[in-house]
Each structure stands twice: as structure tokens, then as C-alpha cells.
Design brief:
The protein is mostly beta strands. The protein is 6% helix and 40% strand. Strands 1-8-3-6 form a four-stranded antiparallel beta sheet, with no helix packed on it.
């Protein structure tokens, strides 16, 4: 994941503010992906963010796990299903990269199947 290269002519379409455990959108804790033609760059300023990548929208077992420490970043490819977990002290933001001529295009998609943290799905099944 971190070895992915964003095309050099692409631009940051949007950069989020810093997220922590107190203000992270719930969609980031559940299955979601970046849109076609959009790379997500997770930049960790403090603590640890763990990225879980899934082969498809319905999988609950990660095929890829990347631990991103403070001062590091990782890149998620377009249309790759994933979610994140944060350490208690984590602070990070996300840059969304796309070709310069795609200003009106959506940047990400939330899962309609997994719309809550996976732990809650298992709690309900019991």
C-alpha cells in the first residue's frame, strides 16, 4: 500500500482537517473506498492509525493490514475497500488525489453493507 505511487501530474482535490478519536467520522471506521480515479493518502501526525484493506465490500477479514506511525503516510488505491482504527492519541488527516480535470467527481463511497464498526456487527449477532 505505501509503495503505491500517485501519478506525478495529479493534484490534491481535498485535504481534510485533523481527525482524532473524538471527531473521526464513523464512515472511516467502517468499510468505505475511494472513488474511481482517486487515491487516498493517510498522513499520521501523532499516534498510530491501522489501515485494514479488504478484497471487496462484503469481506470482513482484512487481506492487508498496515500500521501507520506518527510521521508516516500510506496510500490507498482507487476503489479499494478499507477501514481504519486509531490509537487513543492518534491524529491524522487524509489527502484525496485525482487528475486535475475531475473537480466535480465524488471522492469516496461508504459501504451499504458495512455501515457500522465491525465489532458492533458481531455484538448484534450474539
Amino acid at each position: 500500500m505505501s509503495d503505491l505511487i500517485i501519478p506525478s501530474h495529479w493534484k490534491i482535490r481535498r485535504s481534510t482537517h485533523f481527525f482524532t478519536k473524538d471527531n473521526i467520522p464513523s464512515a472511516l471506521l467502517t468499510h468505505h473506498n475511494t472513488a474511481e480515479g482517486v487515491y487516498g493518502q493517510i498522513c499520521v501526525m501523532q499516534g498510530t492509525v491501522t489501515f485494514y484493506g479488504f478484497a471487496n465490500e462484503v469481506d470482513t477479514t482484512a487481506e492487508k493490514t498496515v500500521v501507520i506511525q506518527a510521521g508516516e503516510f500510506a496510500v490507498s488505491p482507487p476503489q479499494y475497500w478499507h477501514r481504519v482504527e486509531l490509537s487513543d492519541d492518534a491524529q491524522f488527516n487524509i489527502n484525496f488525489w485525482a487528475e486535475p480535470d475531475t473537480q466535480s467527481k465524488a471522492l469516496f463511497k461508504s459501504s451499504r453493507i458495512h455501515n457500522q464498526p465491525i465489532e458492533k456487527l458481531f455484538e448484534q449477532a450474539e
